[in-house]
Design goal:
The structure holds two protein chains of two kinds.
Chain A: E1 5-7, E2 10-13, E3 19-24, E4 31-37, E5 44-50, E6 53-56, E7 65-68, E8 75-79, E9 88-95, E10 102-103, E11 107-111
Parallel strand pairs in A: 2-11
Antiparallel strand pairs in A: 1-3, 3-8, 4-5, 4-9, 5-6, 7-8, 9-10, 9-11
Chain B: E1 3-5, E2 10-14, E3 19-21, E4 24-26, E5 33-39, E6 46-52, E7 60-61, E8 64-69, E9 74-79, E10 88-96, E11 99-103, E12 107-112
Parallel strand pairs in B: 2-12
Antiparallel strand pairs in B: 1-4, 3-9, 5-6, 5-10, 7-8, 8-9, 10-11, 10-12
Chain lengths: 112, 113
């Protein structure tokens, strides 16, 4: 069974530029999560989808971050415009009905 | 709001020895799930063990076991016969039925040969 796929693995941009990350969950997993993990900290939930609906986006900085999961499968997270403090690893995870999350390899973003 | 605390930023253990990582949490719910995740230097997060709060029996997975004390809101991870491959960041996490996922700050475990 294929795991959670993410791309790109690494991205370097300058502040005020835009960036997008892509995630393809494990086949059949209805729930998809995006996390931000700043170096040395635990992951922080940004947004949670159930199929193509948003369950929780209370910690998503909506003035610059957006996410979509149009067909209930893969998802895109966008940052526009990026700030220096957005430098982090962005993790995608998916789960079925068991509450257990399976994580992708992450995208390491560096904002200069 | 739910919180998860890991009071040990770093721990070390000798190879083949046993180590215990601590985790405490705060919630007003009576039924929930707790997890320990491992994040090796390559950064892919891997599930180590899962505990359902309504089950009194402590979960075990091979060399990994937990001590779940619901009244004290404590959820520690014991690693027996530590191996070099156990070196990683370990995160304690809480969820209420797949929602309100909260991770602790992590404990960095070093395994000494």
């Amino acid at each position: 069974e294929a795991g959670v796929a993410q791309s790109p693995r690494y991205k370097i941009i300058e502040k005020r530029q835009s960036v997008a990350f892509w995630c393809n969950p494990i086949s059949g997993h209805a729930t998809l999560y995006w996390y931000q993990q700043i170096l040395g900290q635990g992951p922080k939930l940004l947004i949670q989808f159930q199929n193509n609906g948003v369950v929780d986006d209370s910690q998503l900085p909506k003035d610059r971050f957006s996410a979509e999961r149009l067909k209930g499968v893969d998802s895109t997270l966008k940052i526009q415009p990026a700030k220096l403090e957005d430098s982090a690893v962005y993790l995608c995870a998916s789960s079925s009905v068991t509450d257990t999350q399976y994580f992708g390899p992450g995208t390491r973003l560096t904002v200069l | 709001a739910q919180t998860v605390t890991q009071s040990q930023p770093e721990m070390s253990v000798q190879e083949a020895e046993t180590v215990t990582l601590s985790c405490t949490y705060d919630t007003s719910e009576s039924d929930y799930y707790l997890f320990w995740y491992k994040q090796p230097p390559s950064r892919q997060m891997i599930l180590v063990i899962r505990q359902e709060a309504y089950k009194q029996q402590n979960a075990t997975e091979n060399r990994f076991s937990v001590n779940f004390q619901k009244a004290a809101k404590s959820f520690s991870l014991k690693i027996s016969d530590s191996q070099l491959g156990d070196a990683a960041m370990y995160f304690c996490a809480y969820t209420y039925y797949g929602q309100n996922f909260v991770f602790g700050p992590g404990t960095r475990l070093s395994v000494l040969p």
